[in-house]
Amino acid sequence: GAVVSQHPSRVICKSGTSVKIECRSLDFQATTMFWYRQFPKQSLMLMATSNEGSKATYEQGVEKDKFLINHASLTLSTLTVTSAHPEDSSFYICSASEGTYEQYFGPGTRLTVT
Amino acid sequence: DQQVKQNSPSLSVQEGRISILNCDYTNSMFDYFLWYKKYPAEGPTFLISISSIKDKNEDGRFTVFLNKSAKHLSLHIVPSQPGDSAVYFCAAADTNAGGTSYGKLTFGQGTILTVHP
After folding, report:
1. Among partner residues A42, A101, A108, which is closest to B42 by beta-carbon distance?
2. pLDDT digits over B59-95, tens only?
3. Is the pLDDT of residue A15 over 80?
4. Is the bond into A8 cis (omega within 30 degrees of 0)?
5. Distance CA B48, CA A46 (A)
6. Interior CA angle at B30 toward B75 and B70, to 5°?
7. 3-class SS at B115?
8. CA closest to A55 among chain B residues
9. What are phi and psi of B43, to 5 degrees?
10. Interface of chain A against chain B, CB under 8 Å?
11. Do B109 and A42 touch (CB under 8 A)?
12. Is the per-residue pLDDT at B100 higher than 80?
């Protein structure tokens, strides 16, 4: 149980375009979903927290207009990187929680902006 | 400001021996701790957790020890197996934080464990 999927697993896009990443909880209802970014050899950096049906809460330093998060249902959250630039290239990971502190992570999405 | 620190970037252990992964934290409000394991290009998977009301929690080959006074926790893997080779992250939470901070985890930098056959 507690499976989280993420799509796509890899995406390459051109600078200036937008990319959408989907995160789904497959066998449970996720009251809260989290979006992280991981740079090489570094920790998971929380970008934002989203609760179903409400606006996401962004961490300090994360541009909410650039990283659009939608949590439309208890099983789906999306992260859209708008007007992507090469510095946005990274590994993006989502996680989902049923309301406890145990988060279940997706497999991640490798974004490369050329 | 790194509130959760894993000061050893890597650890190498022989198969069958004990692996000890360490984690320190600075925020005294943290009262719930978790360990995650991560393979390259995959998301982390939950291993084991411990609440601050305990000083030890065991699950099979994995045991987590918590020393609140030292703000230190460790993960013991006995016996270590080659399949345990991965990056291990410790994470901490303040379960009394409400509002938008509820459910948030703060992660350490990770320790790469290599178990040699």
Report:
1. A108
2. 999 999 999 999 999 999 999 999 999 999 999 999 8
3. yes
4. yes
5. 21
6. 60
7. strand
8. B100
9. -80, 160
10. 4, 6, 32, 34, 41-44, 46, 49, 57, 91, 93-95, 97, 99-108, 110
11. yes
12. no
